[in-house]
From TrEMBL:
Keywords: Membrane, Transmembrane, Transmembrane helix. InterPro entries: AcrB_DN_DC_subdom, Acrflvin-R. One of its GO terms (cellular component) is plasma membrane. It comes from the Bacteria. Coiled coil: none annotated. The keyword DNA-binding does not apply. This is Acriflavin resistance protein.
């Protein structure tokens, strides 16, 4: 699956949760196979929660790989060292710099490697010639087992432990309520083995923490403002008259939230705080 989001949204989400998605669930443990199993269980569970979209595993296993396993007995029989064989394989497919050429003031590396057709042909890997100490050549398949398998292109770590991450976006509801439902569903339906645990690192978590800090700071600021206003208005009765008018300033914003069907986001909260200050100033 794929998701589409603006550049700014993606950067903000990555800053808040380490992922470009709105919700990121880290499954942390030591056994990668166990993490993959639990990640797939969480993916299936998230699909059943209302509002979940673009649910995926960030680094899924099953990436095709070509494995080359050297046979020590055959290496010894042909007089080859494993380091020399591995270097030949690296040179053939990855390339090795053997010199430089100069064109005016620019320098260009000269690399040696197989041609593209041979490098992309899996069947030709076993025919890579290896130079022995006796002066003759033997194919790679004579000293190694070559087979296709599945591997991983990425192994993530968090706090010195291996982790697998499930990401998701949320539509039609707030990310915070989605995270709460996901927490409840995971605790109820998924039994994690010993040494494995789940950690939520989502934009909703950061937004919830920011909202709490905003309410605390706003409360402290409101107390200070009330004290200053009582001094300016020379009495609590005049201050009470000003405060009576404040609820009418919020009517438009509250109706807009109800009509649009959205939730009270951090941005909307900041807007209400700003409106509160403007109303007091105009009063």
């Amino acid at each position: 699956s794929f998701s589409v989001s603006s550049f700014l949204t993606m950067r903000v989400n990555e800053t808040l949760s380490g992922s470009s998605s709105a919700v990121a669930i880290n499954i942390i443990g030591d056994d990668l196979d166990v993490l993959d199993i639990q990640a797939n269980n969480i993916v299936r569970m998230l699909h059943q929660i209302h509002g979940a979209t673009d649910v995926r595993i960030e680094a899924p296993p099953g990436v095709p790989e070509l494995a080359i396993r050297l046979r020590p007995a055959d290496l010894e029989r042909w007089g080859l060292r494993s380091a020399d064989v591995l270097r030949s394989i690296h040179t053939a497919w990855q390339g090795e710099t053997v010199g430089q050429i100069y064109e005016r003031s620019a320098a260009f590396n000269v690399m040696v490697r197989l041609d593209d057709a041979s490098r992309n042909d899996v069947a030709s890997v076993g025919f890579l010639p290896l130079h022995t100490v006796h002066g003759n050549y033997v194919p790679l398949r004579a000293v190694a087992d070559i087979y296709e398998t599945n591997g991983r292109y990425q192994v993530s770590h968090l706090g010195a432990q291996r982790t697998q991450t499930v990401t998701a976006n949320v539509t039609g509801r707030s990310a915070q309520s989605f995270v709460q439902d996901a927490r409840t569903a995971i605790a109820k339906n998924i039994k994690l083995p010993l040494g494995t645990y789940v950690q939520f690192t989502s934009a909703a978590e950061a937004e919830s923490q920011s909202r709490k800090e905003l309410f605390i700071n706003s409360g402290l600021a409101a107390i200070a403002v009330m004290i200053l206003l009582s001094i300016i208005t020379q009495g609590w009765r005049n201050l009470a008259l000003i405060l009576v008018n404040l609820p009418f300033a919020f009517v438009g914003g509250i109706l807009a939230i109800i009509v649009s069907g959205t939730t009270l986001t951090l941005g909307a909260t900041v807007g209400f705080v700003t409106l509160f200050g403007i109303t007091l100033r105009n009063s």
